[in-house]
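Hi R.,

As promised on Friday, here is the backbone we talked about, encoded as structure tokens. Could you run it through your design pipeline when you get a chance and send me back a sequence?
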């Protein structure tokens, strides 16, 4: 089949409420640099919804992770435990400070850091554990927090996917002393590029403001607490424009309707693909009962790499873009160079070969989703019973001959 133009993208940003009005208001108020009215309103809203004592908007989740590494004074030779199955920023932020990554494998069910392997990865140089809540489905935080407390290492949750997700009733991003959010275009709530640092340890508040403001006490100056601002620490420019904060605020204000739409889409995929998945030995997402997921990703595990590639091509032929991620970090050029060892993460390698993500975005119409589902249902893996039957006939025929 020939490739058609993409009709159904993997992701499509959309206006959900007052985004454009708020951006215009930021301009008319004469303040589109950082930390204006809309940034403060985002901070308040995030603090109120999540119950976290301090939230700071950043230019990306990558930058929030970099701030976390600076705040924790990560130094050359410190070790940071990260899952190999994650986005590069989870580890790069710490490697930028000279840390050595220690890659952990993931659980085959939730695709999260395998907490049962955590303890053996801890050494006397371990400073941080970075659990990544894949698809916003929680890591086993009880065990991770217990191990972290026992060995006195910090926990920084990479919650890029997981805003509004919960673990045993508690919001993700509120377990570690620090947590990071992403508001990149592909996330449930976005401002194009953006993020946030959530701080649960109040002792880190003041330095966080300084690091975010180029290493100066400018935030205190703006609040009238000091009469001039000056260079006091390491830092960079991690605060987003207030125009972008306006866009984000509007999206966050629409969180209930956005989440309701995403839930309907996710559940429709799940219920309508379930039989097909069983027949074709495809694994649909696993959401443990006590976890409340934020409906961020709809991923599936095909039986093999060849099947995954053929499946992506199949959808492409129907004008549908599906994608895969992540490539195992422990096998990447930089991962091998920085971790300095031969690491075994078999689950990560297997999942990375077989995973695929279906199109899933806030304004996806029922018609668009129908088209995706119909195209998926037309695909038969070699593991399907029909194929197995055919191939057994073929085997019989060839043995007869
Ligand atoms: C797990 C994880 N961490 C961090 C990031 C980086 O987010 P951002 O693009 O906001 O920097 C991503 C990107 O999607 C991610 O998937």
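Update: got your reply. Pasting your designed sequence below so it's all in one thread:
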């Amino acid at each position: 089949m020939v490739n058609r133009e993409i009709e159904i993208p993997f992701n499509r940003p959309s206006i959900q409420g007052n985004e454009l009005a708020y951006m215009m208001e930021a301009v008319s108020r004469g303040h589109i640099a950082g930390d204006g009215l809309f940034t403060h309103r985002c901070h308040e809203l995030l603090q109120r919804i999540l119950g976290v004592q301090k939230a700071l908007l950043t230019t990306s989740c990558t930058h929030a992770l970099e701030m976390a590494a600076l705040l924790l004074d990560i130094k050359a030779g410190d070790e940071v435990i990260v899952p190999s199955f994650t986005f590069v920023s989870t580890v790069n932020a710490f490697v930028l400070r000279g840390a050595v990554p220690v890659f952990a494998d993931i659980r085959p069910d939730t695709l999260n850091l395998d907490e049962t392997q955590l303890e053996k990865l801890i050494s006397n140089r371990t400073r941080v554990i970075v659990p990544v809540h894949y698809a916003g489905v929680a890591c086993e935080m009880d065990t991770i927090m217990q191990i972290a407390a026992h060995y006195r290492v910090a926990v920084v949750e990479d919650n890029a996917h997981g805003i509004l997700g919960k673990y045993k009733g508690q919001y993700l991003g509120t377990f570690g002393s620090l947590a990071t959010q992403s508001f990149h275009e592909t996330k449930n709530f976005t401002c194009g590029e953006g993020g946030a640092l959530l701080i649960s340890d109040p002792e880190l508040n003041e330095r966080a403001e300084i690091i975010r403001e180029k290493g100066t006490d400018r935030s205190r100056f703006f609040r009238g607490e000091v009469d001039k601002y000056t260079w006091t620490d390491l830092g960079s420019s991690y605060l987003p424009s207030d125009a972008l904060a306006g866009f984000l605020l509007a999206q966050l204000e629409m969180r209930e309707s956005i989440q309701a739409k995403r839930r309907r889409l996710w559940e429709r995929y799940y219920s309508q693909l379930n039989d097909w998945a069983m027949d074709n030995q495809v694994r649909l997402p696993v959401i443990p009962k006590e976890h409340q997921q934020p409906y961020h990703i709809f991923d599936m595990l095909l039986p093999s790499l060849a099947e995954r590639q053929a499946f992506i091509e199949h959808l492409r032929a129907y004008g549908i873009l599906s994608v895969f991620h992540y490539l195992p970090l422990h096998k990447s050029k930089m991962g091998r160079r920085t971790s300095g060892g031969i690491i075994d993460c078999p689950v990560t390698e297997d999942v990375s070969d077989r995973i695929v993500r279906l199109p899933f975005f806030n304004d996806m119409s029922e018609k668009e989703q129908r088209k995706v589902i119909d195209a998926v249902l037309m695909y038969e893996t070699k593991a399907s019973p029909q194929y197995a039957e055919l191939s057994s006939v073929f085997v019989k025929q060839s043995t007869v001959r």
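One thing I noticed while checking it: The pocket of pyridoxal-5'-phosphate is lined by residues 60-62, 86-87, 89-90, 132, 158, 160, 182, 184, 195 (CB under 6 Å).

Thanks again,
M.
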